[in-house]
Amino acid sequence: MRDGNTYDLQTRYPGKSEDAFSSNGSFEWNKAGNQSTLKNSKEGRAPIYYKIGENQVTQLGLDGNPVKGNLSSMNVLVKEDEHNLNKYWKLIEVNGNAVIAEANRKREPHMILHTSDKRVTGHGGCNSFTGTFQLGANNGISFSPLAATKMFCNNMQRTEDLLFKALQNADSYYLSNDTLQLTRARMAPLAKFVAVYLK
Fold first, then answer.
1. What is the Cα 27 distance to its own chain's centre?
2. Helix or strand or coil: residue 73?
3. What angle do CA 64, 70, 71 make, to 5 degrees?
4. How confident is the model at residue 153 (pLDDT cuts 50, 70, 90)?
5. I need a surface site. Which of 11, 51, 156, 184 has the fewest CB within 10 A?
6. pTM of the model
């Protein structure tokens, strides 16, 4: 949105063409200041209604009311606070099994999400790894294939393999305070982490 109550809007649909759909026009607020109406400059185009909340925007239906049904969540845009993810995440559970600290382990299993350049680095308890990740709408997340060292550690191999598999299969995340869960299709968590603050 720009000065003079005008806007430029670009829309891109996931999984579709890389081209963005552009539109522009004027907008106005309701009296309560929590809903905005975008009026397209092209004649005959229906206005677009948005409800404005704290750290989120919801696109409303053509009648200005909330969209109902299974796809209603797709109309909600949530501000991503990437700094919440930009931490050292210690693995505490994988595939439903608690990760127990072991004295002879090389390093504790963990990952660090570098949100500035979308890199992930970490350690599985035996091997270090690196890769990239992408954040999507509605807490979506995906990891590239990981590059890892090739050490063999019998005591940690299963935990590490499960961690790598969880990163490969994850498509969403849930963040609550200092706990991060990676999930697939928003089902049971594949892996659970807690934030560790360096002193």
1. 29
2. helix
3. 55
4. confident
5. 11
6. 0.58
Q: 99-121: per-residue pLDDT in tens? A: 987 655 668 999 999 988 899 99
Instruction: Give me the long-range contacts of 44-49 (CB less than 8 A, separation at least 24).
Output: 48/9
Q: Which token pair is 89? A: 């995440």
Residue 136 structure tokens: 């999507």
Ranges of CATH 2.40.128.640 domains, the chain: 6-78
Q: What is the DSSP letter of 154?
A: T
- CATH assignment of 82-196? 2.40.128.270
pLDDT score of 15: 46
| CATH architecture of the domain with residue range 6-78 | Beta Barrel (2.40)
**Amino acid in the structure at residue 142:** S
Spatial strand order of the sheet with 21-29 comes to: 6-11, 21-29, 35-40, 48-53, 56-59, 76-78
Element (H, E) at 183: strand 179-183
- Above 60 in pLDDT, residue 175? yes
- How many helices (DSSP H) and strands (DSSP E) are in the chain? 1, 16
